[in-house]
Predict the structure.
Amino acid sequence: MSDPCCGGDTPEPPRNRPLLDPAPAPASSAPLSVTCSCCAQGAGGREPSAPETAEGAVDTDGCGDPTCSSPDPAPGERPGTWWGSAGVRWAGLAGALWLAGVLTGWLTGAPVVATALFAGAIAAGGWTFVPGTLRALLRGGLGVGTLMTVAMVGAILLGEVGEAAMLAFLFSLAEALEDHAVARTRHGLRALLDLVPTRATVLRQGRAATVDPAELAVGDLLLVRPGERVATDGVVRSGRSTLDTSTVTGESVPVEATEGTEVFAGTVNGGGALEIEVTARVADNSLSRVVHIVEREQARKGAAQRLAARVARPLVPGILVVAALIAVVGSLLGEPGVWIERALVVLVAASPCAFAISVPVTVVAAIGAASRSGVLVKGGAALEAFGAVRVVALDKTGTLTRNAPAVVAVEPVPGHTREEVLAAAAALEARSEHPLASAILAAHPDPEPAHDVAAVPGSGLTGTLDGVPLRLGRPGYIDPGPLARAVADLQEQGATTVLVESDGRVVGAVAIRDDLRPEAAEAVAALHRVGVRTVMLTGDNERTARALAARVGVDEVHADLRPEDKARLVTDLRRHGPVAMVGDGVNDAPALATADAGVAMGAMGADVAVETADIALMGEDLRVLPRALSHARRTRRIMLQSLVLSAGILLVLIPLSAFGVLGLAAVILTHELAEVLVIANGVRAGHRTPAESSSTESRQAAERVGERV
């Protein structure tokens, strides 16, 4: 794929390559440098070929990827104040000089003074794009700035200095507004780093000291008082409080924090003091990781964005050829001055600037809005694929459920007790990493561990205790015998049931249930309202899966699945339309990679989920999923609107300028105002975020669904 800003061919990054570099993310105390996204694509990309500006952004020939042409705000500059942008100031100076020249010509009739003012406007406006154009030409690159520079020089040679000044002013203004729009939307993402406090209190040798958060090291003990923000990721070692995580994860309900609770940078402490052991430096914490991943993954371009780049790239030399033919053929037919002027007007009219920037501006705005609402979107490709989704496949454990299984019933066979069954099960699970081990061990802590314990993949465990062989596993691996009816009843109630066998005889059954998230039914209903088909993919048994699916309202259920089975089913589901797979990013990794859009739950604490998925929900509220989908669909509509509008501009202006219907001034004004309109349309994608409901509404909905489920 070719990109208009760099002039070279860059291979598209793999869709689901690992995203976290071994090197730490940049520290939050300094701005993250962002290189040209179409020249440097992370560890595997090319080195930037364009010189860098003082702000650290690659200076290019404009109107390509906004990460190329849009430098970050200078130190102290806030993107919220458009008049604080250097580009806007230069464009404003050019506009003032041009207007002064026009008024001078009208009122005094002094052409020399007016020409001098026009020359100043050309110099001020041209300073913003001519140097980059010349550098691009030296590298063999052609861009929109090339067309504008040629047209401006041609107008001067034809004696139309005033119109050249108007072109310089309007083009520089459009470029400055574009830069500001991108900087403003990117600032929403960078603002995550501002959630880290400027000072932190650390306990060292029993004494409290105030330090810069950048000086914190793993193992330090932070003291976080009521109302203070947590400086970096850690684990609570002492104290009890609640944490407001809304700015980081998008969850509206405060989270209880006690000893052993994992906490994240930027969250706000409630009413109690906490002592937190630091588990990540500021440079490596969850906020820095999110910003680092998103900014790097903005290099991944969606289909519409690639289309815009493919069209804009050959259009520039093509228009130069067409303009040359108009000038040459028209001159041969007579009146060379008229036809040369029309050729120059065509150069301006055919500028694909609006076409080239329409999708990138929309993508940056939408990603920034999503990030502020607890949704991590890894670039335009992920956003566009997610917006096209028609089927959502959901894992059960950790996605529709809380991922906190607990023993809800024990059924011993006659002649055995509940304690005997639990003791045998806990003996096998004592040193197991099986997902249900924690539930069994919580019901029977400190068991005597069994010997020679071995896992039977997909079935259960074997071992011996006091010389007696033991087995633990699902029905089918172990015959339930007299417990068949009880096992069926427990499964119908949505419980996962395992059987315990001692010395070749079944001695009991243990029922374990992972309760549904209280918001799961509401989230599934919201997906149905927007026309999405829902499917549950789970490794649990058929009866349990169907019982839970009925309670939550899922359309279709596939149970007893291994990871490779989930990936195969996602491939089958793609025949019915684009598929999003939602899972926890561990055993769901193959399915996440296979889906058109992989969505990971709880990305603030799961590196595997962040690496595998295209989109990650940083919190645990499943209702964010349908909101994020609606946001992505709206973004796709805005993309298409901008592309159609940009194409319409070219189709109308080129023939009108070629046949002399529109002059240079009219084309410049129409073209640049339309470009500003396209930018404004793209920025709309950042005005509506996935988290649209208020905290009160979210809590009330959760209570309603909790009562129903």
User: Anything to note?
Assistant: The domain at 375-402+518-618 is CATH 3.40.50.1000 (Rossmann fold). The chain has 24 helices and 22 strands. Confidence is low (pLDDT under 50) at residues 1-80, 691-709. The two ends are 50 Å apart (CA to CA).
